[in-house]
Give the backbone structure.
Amino acid sequence: MPVRTDARHGDDLHVDLPPDVHHVLAILTEAGREAALVGGCVRDAVRGETPTDWDVATSATPDAVSALFARSTWENPFGTVTVLPRDPGGKAVEVTTYRIEGPYRDRRRPETVRWGGSLEEDLSRRDFTINAMAWVPGDLGAGSGRLVDPFGGADDLRAGVLRAVGNPDERIAEDALRMVRAVRFATRFDLELDPVTESAVRRLVPEAASLSGERVREELLRMLAGPAAPSRALSMMESLGLLNVLFPELAALRGVPQAKALRGDALDHSLRTTDALPATDPVLRLAGLLHDLGKATTLADGHFIGHEREGAELAEALLKRLRFPRAEIARIARLIRHHMFAYSSGWTDAAVRRFVRRVGADLLDDLYALRRADNAASGAREPARGGLEELRSRTARAVAADPMSPKQLTVDGGDLVRELGLRPGPVIGRLLDELMEAVLEDPGLNRRDLLLALARESSSREPSVEQSPARESSAQE
């Protein structure tokens, strides 16, 4: 979206304020406090976009802000009060007091914070000029106000430049994550890094190793969920040296050859796969990014035997380092582990059922999406017969009609204990697995009498199977 040409420092700028934001600004100004919109919402307004997140800066101290808004919380040392929405459909508004910060000894947070200063001083501590603009309300009812842009953020947007506020070495020294954020903002808004800012990033790249996994994870997910192709951000990270520091497992794919219709190495292929997956599911995109990690360590004689297993292990280690939730780690690892399936029309119905059982019915849609993206990134075409859609149709029918897990059998472990007089233990699990395999081969066997007969026959062949005390007593009598 084009930058508004009328957005200049000191000029009037119209902003359509949501009711909750209007309410917060009105209460603060009526109380005689300075209040202004700051950060990303102003940047978006200057770009002609509708902001989605709204932040307010004020001269009022946090306790004064809390006193003005009954529905508010203040649980941090940085002067940010969250004003809760008045209605169920509203959004919370963060209100931060103008502050002056001390040194950033941990390269993340200021050691000391004191309230005071001016709006311009508050803007001077921000990362990039495009985020260091403010909007001071004039006529709130009309949504009119004045743009405050002391560092030329609007001019940089027009020029297509991302530039640090003040000295870029100092800004990055304050928070090393700003190097990653520079990549995200540059690719999100189609900007080039200012040469001085870029030089500072290249010089300070090693400092990125000190970043916490959680913070890197959140930036990565924003890149994967953003409107720009993730490959642009990841390629920029590689060019700056950040990829090797933060994701060495991914950087190791550079130079690994690929025998694909499309040119490029394993990293190029992985980036194309990521782009081909939907931005609405960043975790699935991450699976696409990591699906071939194992190729860097399994290449031998032009083949990557077992790269899916090796890749799943490498991905798990990387995701644990980034503190991803266990469920998301498991989802991605399972996708990587199973992405090399080779379907043909010659598969029997039993083979289709075993495929579903092995992969998990819950993973099928994700796995098919990953395979489509993998094929697109390889330049491969789906065959007219025996392709992905045929497999999807067959697995859908199987899932709808046939038992796929022991929970769907007509007997359970309790039945085996009661009817066969067996002791609870590992043998029960083995018998249920055997019954499941039999039903996968022939779903017609999923009848209580037939399964109990099969289980009785199988247990009789295992001399180590112990009967329950009650059954032993009955046999002795």
In short: The longest helix spans residues 426-441. Residues 470-477 have pLDDT under 50 and may be disordered.
